[in-house]
Design brief:
Blueprint (H helix, E strand, L loop, with lengths): L6 E4 L6 H9 L9 E6 L5 E6 L2 H9 L2 E7 L5 E3 L3 H4 L9 E5 L17 H19 L4 E6 L1 H14 L3 H4 E7 L13 H10 L9 H7 L23 E6 L8 H5 L18 E5 L13 H12 L2 E12 L1 H4 L4 E12 L5 E5 L7 E4 L7 E9 L11 E16 L2 E2 L11 E11 L5 E9 L4 E3 L2 E2 L6 E5 L5 E12 H4 L2
Parallel strand pairs: 1-6, 1-7, 4-6, 7-8, 8-9, 9-10
Antiparallel strand pairs: 2-3, 4-5, 11-15, 11-23, 12-13, 12-14, 12-16, 16-17, 16-18, 18-19, 19-20, 21-22, 22-23
Length: 488
Amino acid sequence: MDKYLPIIYVRGYAGSKGAVESTVDRPYYGFNLGSTQVRTGPDGDPNFFLFESPLVRMMKDHGYTDLFARVSERGEVELLNGEQKIYKAGGFPVRSLWIYRYYDRTSERAGDGTRDDIETLGENLGHLVDYVLEQTGAKRVHLVAHSMGGLICRSLIQRVFKKNAIRKIDRLFTYATPHRGIHFRRGLGFLTSVRDLLGLNDSDTFGPKRMRKFLGLPDDWDEQRLNEVGNHFPVERIFSLIGTNHTDYNLASLAVGPGSDGLVQMEHAYIKGSSRAFVYRSHSGPLGIVNSEEGYQNLQRFLFGDTSVRIDLEGVRLKESLRKDADLRFLLIETTVLIRGEEIVMSDQREEHGSALTIGARALESSRETLFQTYLMKANRPSAQDRYSNFQVRLRFLPHYVRNRQVLRDRHYFGEHLFQHTLTIGIRDRDDGDGRLLRAKWTGLDSDLPATARRYPNSENIRFRLPAENLEQGEVVLCIRNEEKALT
């Protein structure tokens, strides 16, 4: 099965008239925006790091062709850059990248000023998907969406296509999508009610009442479950990228606060059960989540990766002296994932970013928690001679001593850890395409420990015992899967 399929980009919300006109003025609806950073080079001097944008990189790295489309009131697809003269009917390239320009109609210069509701946007996206499949001959398409664009895609999947979604859509990747809506921080909840009551410029789209409607859910559906896709689409084909920098956004960040990307709270920014990664980026802007190298690396690996590796924690049991400490109520689990040959982190959950996994100190003794899922690409290894991919998982367990719902200041040190080790893993290819473990090693501050793998018959899981640093037991569990075989 060819993993290179047509890609449709779906942008996020533009509220004001000015934001709409600015969006329409950009041919790629903002997906072409890149970023420039200053990084410390190998000699210690500052170097410019240029990232062209996920869209440009997709064309340069994977040979995609850009196309621009909008959909009329009658559901007819209109191409906007003379493409119908270049490509004969049915002759559009499979490696085509389509920009769904749904705000053209809302523009007072390009359209008639009508703002379509999200149900209509989802239906029109369905017309575009059908058109792309017909014109390219592809079996399915990939959907890539930012913010509200992810909700448009979900309206298409859950309300329009329903059981037919899996026949037409291969994968869905969302950047900073409010899958459980947008909520303001504690003390400002009334702003959420005012927004949903007035619905100015369809801003109530991000409230539970409207979400239930455009997702095709019952009126009494629990709003804590709005991030579920049910049986309409397999969650294995969905990736949720979550931003953790709430400081680098506009004034909305003051109302939403920490634990967010400045607009969407982290706990609301993923589809339940989907693969997900955390990156220290804001919702949008010059250094936002879409125009980031971290976002692009997760995107291309999810769409085109050869092997997926899911890492879980299971059966973590603290030493008896720690278990007897009644004030040790919570553990913060920090996870950083790096792939050899890349200059960026694939996922980064930290206490200082407010993104570390918070879990009861004894909750993992008889349970399992997924930390992340990463995707490995043969084409992106450091050299052509490599037959395996190396990556690292850096783990830290931090204690939170709590009494009467207050952190005990006389016992708390910011960044203090009970456990800190790095697991380095090598995955090699077999001749039949399956990934297999080549080697693994634990590295701590003062130790270099072999990681002995345990693999049971008829099990896809590989297990490693956690080093006994303040622990009686605990395992890291790897689930390695060949993507082409798994999702054909």
